């Protein structure tokens, strides 16, 4: 039987942890009893440098029940890093890991669906929010715009999939090959490949506590996602430069015509043409530098050039 670790990053979640652990315990006990997962399976809480009683609660839970385990980060490192810390710990002990948020906004029944897919041989199962009716209009709008902008910039991400997913041990080992410091898991995981699929669930409202993603963090998360995965903004500079140079030709013709017709003060045509032409030239130059920076950026990430799923050599 396979060992499952449910990995839960927690930042100042004292208000939800008791309820969350209760619900997960029920779920895990049922799964263990029905022999869907091994009895060594655990719920692993990662304390992301919380300033409240989060760690005390986690410690207490681990003492009461060996179903619960905890990892404490030395300080707040952000959701993505906390999640990675948990997944990398799970990799050592488990056959698969499911990541979820501490507030159980992701319906925990999704665990059953994911396990079924794992049984069918899938290595990565993405949890996708089927409906966001219970999210506020603002959250829904910003989140959906985010996925659309990412897609438009050529980043390979799964629409409406947050960080609720199952990964097999093999997938976690592949994830470990990505050494980048600017961690944006929703972008990295699709890069892994392997046999993957999607399951749908309903997203609930947060049952207690406040969102740990205020607008400022949300924007910086989105910006991180884009700048860690897309060099399109850099290429856009070059395109813009070419466009401006083209406009400068039109302006040149226009200025000369106006000058010849004699409706101008002396020097006007010269200055107008210069401004547009030099502007375009500068933009193109920056764009070319941008192309090189884009290359440097890709190189410095040291992403794995390939990941092997299976090798067959018969002698
Ligand atoms: N979280 C974290 N570190 C942070 C911010 C958030 O570990 O710096 C965790 C948080 O405890 C929760 C998850 O990330 O388990 C998602 O946060 P939240 O539910 O507040 O985000 P939302 O659902 O509002 O997008
Ligand atoms: Mg939440």
Concise overview:
This protein has 315 residues and is of the alpha/beta class. Helices cover 52% and strands 14% of the residues. Bound molecules: uridine-5'-diphosphate and magnesium ion (MG).
Characterise the protein shown here.
The chain has ten helices and seven strands. The chain is an alpha/beta fold and 315 residues long. The chain folds into two domains: 4-229, Spore Coat Polysaccharide Biosynthesis Protein SpsA, Chain A; 232-301. Bound molecules: uridine-5'-diphosphate and magnesium ion. The site of uridine-5'-diphosphate has 16 residues, from strand 1 and helix 3.
Secondary structure layout plus pairing:
Layout: E1 4-10, H1 14-33, E2 42-47, H2 54-64, E3 68-72, H3 79-93, E4 96-99, H4 110-119, E5 124-131, H5 137-152, E6 161-168, H6 169-175, H7 185-192, E7 196-202, H8 215-229, H9 232-260, H10 268-300
Parallel strand pairs: 1-2, 1-4, 2-3, 5-7
Antiparallel strand pairs: 4-6, 5-6
The structure holds uridine-5'-diphosphate (UDP) and magnesium ion (MG).
The site of magnesium ion has 5 residues, from loops.
């Amino acid at each position: 039987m396979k060992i499952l670790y449910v990995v839960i990053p927690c930042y100042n979640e004292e208000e939800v942890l008791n309820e969350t652990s209760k619900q997960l315990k029920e779920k895990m006990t049922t799964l263990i009893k029905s022999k869907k997962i091994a009895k060594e399976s655990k719920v692993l809480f990662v304390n992301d440098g919380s300033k409240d009683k989060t760690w005390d609660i986690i410690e207490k839970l681990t003492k009461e029940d060996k179903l619960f385990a905890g990892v404490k980060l030395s300080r707040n490192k952000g959701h993505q890093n906390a999640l990675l810390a948990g997944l990398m710990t799970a990799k050592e002990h488990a056959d698969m890991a499911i990541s979820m948020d501490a507030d159980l906004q992701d319906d925990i029944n999704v665990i059953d669906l994911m396990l079924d897919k794992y049984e069918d041989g899938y290595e990565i199962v993405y949890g996708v929010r089927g409906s966001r009716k219970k999210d506020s209009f603002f959250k829904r709008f910003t989140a959906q715009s985010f996925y659309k902008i990412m897609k438009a910039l050529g980043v390979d991400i799964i629409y409406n999939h947050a960080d609720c997913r199952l990964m097999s041990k093999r997938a976690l080992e592949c994830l470990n090959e990505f050494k980048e410091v600017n961690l944006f898991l929703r972008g990295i995981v699709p890069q892994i490949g392997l046999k993957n699929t999607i399951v749908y669930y309903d997203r609930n409202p947060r049952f207690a506590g406040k969102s740990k993603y205020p607008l400022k963090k949300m924007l910086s998360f989105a910006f991180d996602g884009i700048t860690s995965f897309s060099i399109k903004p850099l290429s856009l500079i070059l395109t813009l430069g070419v466009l401006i140079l083209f406009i400068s030709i039109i302006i040149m013709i226009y200025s000369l015509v106006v000058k010849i017709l004699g409706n101008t003060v002396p020097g006007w045509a010269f200055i107008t043409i210069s401004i547009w032409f030099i502007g375009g030239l500068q933009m193109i130059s920056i764009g070319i530098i941008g192309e090189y920076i884009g290359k440097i950026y890709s190189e410095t990430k040291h992403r794995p050039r390939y990941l092997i799923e299976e090798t067959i050599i018969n002698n």
